Amino acid sequence: MAASPQQQGQGGSGGGGWSPEQFWSLLDKADRRFARVRDLPLLGRQEPDAFAKAFRAYTQLWRMQQEHRHRLLDAGLRRWQVGEIAARIAHLYYAQYQRTADTALLSEAFVFYHAVLDRAYFLDADHHVTPAKHLRFLARFLLVALLLARRAQTVPRLIADIRALLEDSKKSFQEAEYKEWKHVVLEILRFLRADSPFMNMRPLRYSYAFDLPPDKLPTVPPTVKKRGLVLSDAILCSYYPNEVKFTDLSIDVFRMLQCLEWEPCGSFALNNGYSAHDESGQNQPNLLKDLRDAALPPNPLKTILNRPSVTHFLTVLATKCEELPTNGIMLIYLSAAGEMGTSGFCPDTGENVVRHFSKFDISSTTSHTSSKEEKEPCLWLGCRETEGSNCIYPGDLIPFTRRLLFLVIDSSISYAFKSIHGIERGETAAMLLSPSSRSSAAGFSGDSTRHTGSQFTMFLTAPLQAFCLLIGNNGTDINRDAYNKAEELLSSSLNEWATTLVASSALHPVWVEVLGDPLLRRLLLRFIFCRATLSLFNPTSGKAEFLPTCVPPLPESVDAESMLSQSCVMRVASHFGAAIQFAFAEITTWPDGDAEEAGVTGSSGTASKAVPETGRDSDISYSSTSSF
What pLDDT sits at residue 225? Predict the structure, then answer.
């Protein structure tokens, strides 16, 4: 679509009978089609016919203006109209990315958005492009740039343009509209501050430059029964009052969204970060060809829900489960504030939770009525004014357990979802459940979700960044080489956990399936790292409310108390000089040959203590490309 006229040839609009009237007629038709598809729901595996027609119309328009630019300018075409065509093509590419999760389409959207910005198509638009319309264009471009991690040049430029345009156009806005845009600018700044110190350290996506290719991952023995299920679809939903977000993307969903995708190219590693990447899009007319490796697996389809009603959430979930392939796994990510209810549940009363929810078994022939005095724990997906339409209960997910669900629950009442285990309708649900409490002494304050995002979600999506914040290293003066070495140490630890898991005879069948999918495997291994770290961290050690859990349980060989887990955590902690902040077993030791290498000075300026090993951990021979 973005190909040059030489690539297009003389087909389509290049005939001798072409006239400017054909362009204006097609432009009117394209605008009508765009209006029809702009608000179509981004759900379903089949592309709507109206979307394909709109895309086709704008493709023809773009070719016409490329081939007949001078004649069209003489006929009255203005530069802002060319810019609007390019911006709408970019919008359609982004919408198609939302539907298909193909990051190559995101790159195509970037090229068209950047062309509009770089060639200043909207600067001479006079009254044809209002300040509000121009700001919406910049905000959409900013979202695409953030998703592509173009944080070095493009993102700062867009933020500066948004702020300057807003101030210059202040008089043209109504007071309420101006305040709305001012709030958007504040949201953008909060969003960027959430993780700016660690930006460009490594991509959130699964990258072959940092993560092992799927064919090199440890696998379960051939004797273990395996169905070969893969992550196919995901629903991502987050809501906290005053949470860090930009448009419909909270910082937690933003991280999880990318964590469930494959990095489309090697530019991140080749340039040691996106800061050295050519962000102009110039001389790259077809990023769809240049960036998409045909050998990469397809990304799972993802649906982002922003403050949905429960009926809408369940409708989307039912639709996705209905369309889920026979070998598919559905991931559900819920990050929201919880209400404990009035039954006095706590993380230590899991059996009581199960008994409480079992009476709501929809297959039971006995009628049960819950009184107003006995409420279930629930997640709030919106404001608390209308309880029935904004809160979701663990029992709401039970009908959908006919398919394999992978649940990531990040909430103070995450433990309540244990009640699902054992009463599924067909498939055992795999669950990663966050701690029920956050300690202010643990590097993340109780309201950290409002500032840096969730600690649990960060461990799953950017584990080393979460570890640094936990030990008090905010990344402002972090050494890149030291950070890369820590990534290498963490990679070797994750590899060891993976090897231990696949060799365990006590591994539950649902985790066997999870380990077969690289994206889910990475989440599970990072969960083990999170659990071990928080279990050994002095302020939270031995306190169940500060520790994450998983259902079904994992083998004891990867428990936090195991020598393997302690050595893995101590290896990273000692690298940052933070071993003293953890409660390691006294029998945990590090061989003399590695003691000097382990004693790296961290941000606190203190040398690390001895670092442990398990029987075969004395030599760290993994390269930096062995990360999960």
Answer: 87
